[in-house]
Amino acid sequence: MAKLSDLIIAHPEVKSFDELERLVAEAGEAGEMFIEFDIKPDYRDTPRKWEWILEAAFTRGTSYG
């Protein structure tokens, strides 16, 4: 299981929600079965429905978008 906090901590180069979305999609393609949204992303461009967007990216992988 991937945790959002672990992804963010492991990738300090990610500076925007769009970059985080790509990172989450890559985690889904890498074989992770589940993702836990244990924190809210603290980026200026984080949208209100961020959970839905990241869930879709995780499920569809890098072909999402």
Overall description:
This protein is mostly helical. It has one domain. 48% of the residues lie in helices and 6% in strands. It contains 3 helices and 2 strands; from the N terminus they run E-H-H-E-H. A two-stranded parallel ribbon has the order 1-2. It is globular, with a radius of gyration of 10 Å. The mean pLDDT is 94.
At a glance:
By secondary structure, this protein is mostly helical. The protein has helices at 4-10, 17-29, 50-60, and strands spanning 2-3, 35-36.
Short descriptors:
single chain; 65 residues; mainly alpha; two-stranded parallel ribbon; 3 helices; globular
* H-E string: EHHEH
* Strand order across the largest sheet: 1-2
Oligomer type: single chain
Helicity, as a percent range: 40-55%
Number of helices: 3
> Unreliable segments (pLDDT under 50, ≥5 consecutive)?
none
Number of domains: 1
Radius of gyration: 10 Å
Describe the secondary-structure layout.
Layout: E1 2-3, H1 4-10, H2 17-29, E2 35-36, H3 50-60
Parallel strand pairs: 1-2
Helix pairs in contact: 2-3
Protein name: Sulfur relay protein DsrC
